[in-house]
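BUG: 3D viewer hangs when loading the predicted structure for this chain

Environment: internal workstation, default settings.
Expected: structure renders.
Actual: progress bar stalls at 90%.

Input used:
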Amino acid sequence: MENKHLYFNTSIGVKKPENYRNKEQACPFCAREELTDLIEVDGPIILLKNKYPVLENAYQTVLIETDDCHAELSTYSKEHLHRLIRFGLKHWLEMEENGGFKSVIFFKNHGPLSGGTLAHPHMQIIGLNDLDYKEKVEPEMFDGILIAEENGVRFTLSTKPRVGFYEFNVEMPEFGYQERFSEYMQMAAHYILHHFPFRATSYNIFFHHLDGKIYAKVVPRFVTTPLYIGYGLPQVPNNLNWMADELKRIYF
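Structure tokens produced before the viewer hung:
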């Protein structure tokens, strides 16, 4: 029977450090001299094997974004932003091409409701041995109201969100990095944290590689609606056009 679930190793999970709520917990990513199993270092950016590989049948890596524990992607300088995303995309696509995995996922957690455990800015690149995430992706989840478009890069607000409510999409062709890709993504994160119509502290970024395009889906995180948890029913709010216009007003 084909496997459709990720299996979580709880004996490893209970050992993971957590400092969103446990403020006494020292940040392991700040102790750079103690980090092990480094894969590549590019100045303040580090890719390394995950010390707590909680997912079975997977190869887990962590991408430490910066040496500043209190930094956040939405406020990175353009220079650091492009350096980081180029680095992450390169390693993700190389793992996808050469790693022998069924699929490779690349994502970011930020904030206490994002599902992450450490506040220090980081992403994860995970090779899945027996699961193809693309089987659960519907192309319509990247459809949306156009906010901006430049040099083949599109920035939209989902009209058919995967989970529901507000999801921002950025897409670019898979050939050649475009700076607007990262800049639109940064705008979405900044809007969520600083201009959202209700207080937001958390978001995720999920990268997808489909049909010749690279996508980043930026999702504000709140308590997930029970209609999605219980029935898989995404909800679409009636103020999407207003929000798209707000982003245009603030950033363009």
